[in-house]
Amino acid sequence: MAVRPLLEVRGVDKSFGAVQVLRDVAMNVFPGEVTALVGDNGAGKSTLVKCISGIYPIDAGQVVFDGRPVTVSSPKDAAALGIEVVYQDLALCDNLDIVSNMFLGREKRSGIALDEATMEQMAHRTLASLSVRSVSLRQPAASLSGGERQTIAIAKAVLWNSRVVILDEPTAALGVAQTAQVLELVRRLADNGLGVVLISHNMNDVFAVSDRITALYLGRTAAQVRTSEVTHSQVVELITVGYTGSIGLLPDPGSYEGMGGRS
Amino acid sequence: MRAAPTQDEVRRQNLGALLRWVHLHGATSRAELTSLLGLNRSTIGALTADLAAARLVAEDTPKGLRRAGRPSLVVRPQSASVYAYAVSIEVDRLRAARVGLGGVVLDRRELPRPRGVQILETVAPLAGFVREMHRRVPAGAIYVGGGVSVAGMVRREDGLVRLSPHIGWVDEPIGIALAAELGGDQPMTVGNHADVAALAEHARGAAAGCDNVLYLYGDVGIGGGIIAGGRRVTGHGGYGGEVGHMVVNPHGKPCGCGSRGCWETEIGEAALLTAAGRAGATGRDAILAVVDAAERGDTTARNALRQVGDWLGFGVANLVNIFNPEAVLFGGTLRDVYLAAAAHVRSRLNEMALPATREHVRLRTPALGDDATLIGAAELAFERLLADPLDAAGSPVPPPR
Ligand SMILES: Nc1ncnc2c1ncn2[C@@H]1O[C@H](COP(=O)(O)OP(=O)(O)O)[C@@H](O)[C@H]1O
Ligand SMILES: [Mg+2]
Ligand SMILES: [Zn+2]
């Protein structure tokens, strides 16, 4: 496809003290697509997300957004670019209703004071664009199910014209029916034109909604592949040993340079 | 050489195009309609006036931001007062709805259908639903007709439904029976479930904007709705798209149709439940229970989903090679099976389908959910209105109150 990535991570290194957690990591995120970010526990997925969203500074490499190299040194910088992260621990205020939760902490950031009617209208429009019909705007967050909380957290992320939404294990704590709804919502975000990154351990979730898969292995990019080009067992191999057939980080340590990050 | 279209034909076509646009996309400003339909401003003004006079659309001044100059009027469908009846005869339930222009469900009724209730026995309760809803229709509302979605093979000509209970094939005139019971002046248009759901998803759902679509609907059996080049493919008699009876396994299990190894014997409800050690269970809740058990680590349930997911991918690969669709939608219980077994569906598809046909195919679940069959059944009735808005609006007589 001739479409340019919306977000490009190039050659990113990140160490905590003496421990190098990310090494020469690459990932491309395209508009209108879901990129699944997969890897074993400790592979570096969450760290990569925190580097992209300005929580951790990177030691080397580049983040390119919409074709421009950018420096993201705080979540505020990320939000200004239109990069939003939905974390697993869903920070909603139980005593506030849905509208207030969707605007919580955002009014100030945008610098404009919004009246209740405008906020309600914006919340309504956002939920409608995501075909969310199961909740009412003035319902307190305490009354929401886990799946609905996840839905509101996602809606909050797209409220301000975000362009890239990153979801860290959004279905991990959910039951079957709610997982299905959240997966459909993830797909809809991309179908509405956003670039979406989905972190998941569940291969059915990954194959159900992704267009591309980026596999991390021990802090390196093992491969970036199209979901239409690989099988389940190949992705499992990329995750567990870093390569499959001729794709990925070849076992011979001398030959893996140049293989990682090939798309 | 064909004669040039008459002025009347052109006008009818333009009226239909404008009404179709707002029916599918909702309120649209005159300025946008002008550029979308490629007509000039005064033509749009005249068409809108005609449709408004027929009470099919209304015009509003846009709310919200006021810019300098005169704002372009917004044309919206009269969803609350232009309506069709939609009836959906499913394996496990019976539903009826009143659907407004624009695809808005205005009222609905639902009843479980115990397995074994014959199709003609569903006519009385369904007609009852319609009469009940009809008592609440506001005065002056415009009835455009009725559509029926049925889990069975439908003859295009007259809406005759062919069913295959275990005793053999039987033909049931459901559209005529419903109309007779309701006392309207026209039979309701009947469509097969998957065809009708495909129509709805293509019009305003997950396949909007796609001209080549494959909709797979799962319940006891597997139905297929095919849209190719923007048109529904239903075959010579209306019986096409029976993908559930595509033979995938010549050494497989006998099928209710009399053949052996049909796709639905590998991916239908009974196949999954039997593989999961739950032979005899039926219905969507039983399917969801298998998905839930698999999620909790039940190995038998996992293996059953893997096996069915694999066969699902096997059939989709064949169909993708034949039709080269932009989107494949998994509806009914196949939605739950797809989401829970997508790794296996995709893997088999990727191994079997040609790179050229699989690389751009989107695998999706329906956006309209269970409403697709109701909205699609209503769409069958709206079709007549859209073909000739000013004529059809007056013609069908609604059921008596
Ligand atoms: N703040 C930190 N300080 C030191 N080590 C960390 C820190 N955050 C993560 N790590 C280490 O980095 C590695 C990658 O962690 P993480 O990014 O959370 O992986 P994943 O999300 O893929 O499971 C792990 O070995 C983890 O212990
Ligand atoms: Mg993590
Ligand atoms: Zn058969």
Automatic annotation (TrEMBL), chain A:
Query: What Pfam families is this protein classified in?
Result: ABC_tran
Domain spans labelled ABC transporter:
7-243
InterPro entries (alphabetical): AAA+_ATPase, ABC_carbohydrate_import_ATPase, ABC_transporter-like_ATP-bd, P-loop_NTPase
Q: Is Iron found in the keyword set?
A: no
Q: Name one GO molecular function term.
A: ATP hydrolysis activity
- CDD domains in the record, alphabetically? ABC_Carb_Monos_I
Q: Which UniProt keywords apply?
A: ATP-binding, Nucleotide-binding
Any coiled-coil regions, as ranges: none
Full protein name = Sugar ABC transporter ATP-binding protein
The organism named in the record is Spirilliplanes yamanashiensis
Taxonomic lineage: Bacteria, Bacillati, Actinomycetota, Actinomycetes, Micromonosporales
TrEMBL record, chain B:
Can the keyword Transferase be found in this entry's annotation?
yes
Which stretches are transmembrane?
A: none
The alphabetical list of record keywords is: Kinase, Transferase
KW S-adenosyl-L-methionine (keyword) present: no
Recorded hits in Pfam families, A to Z, give: ROK
**What is a single molecular function from GO for this protein?**
kinase activity
InterPro entries of this UniProt entry?
Answer: ATPase_NBD, ROK, WH-like_DNA-bd_sf, WH_DNA-bd_sf
Q: Cross-referenced SUPFAM superfamilies, in alphabetical order?
A: Actin-like ATPase domain (SSF53067), Winged helix' DNA-binding domain (SSF46785)
Family to which the UniProt record says this protein belongs: Belongs to the ROK (NagC/XylR) family.
Q: Which PANTHER family match?
A: BIFUNCTIONAL UDP-N-ACETYLGLUCOSAMINE 2-EPIMERASE_N-ACETYLMANNOSAMINE KINASE, ROK (REPRESSOR, ORF, KINASE) FAMILY
What is this protein's record name? Sugar kinase
| Source organism phylogeny | Bacteria, Bacillati, Actinomycetota, Actinomycetes, Micromonosporales
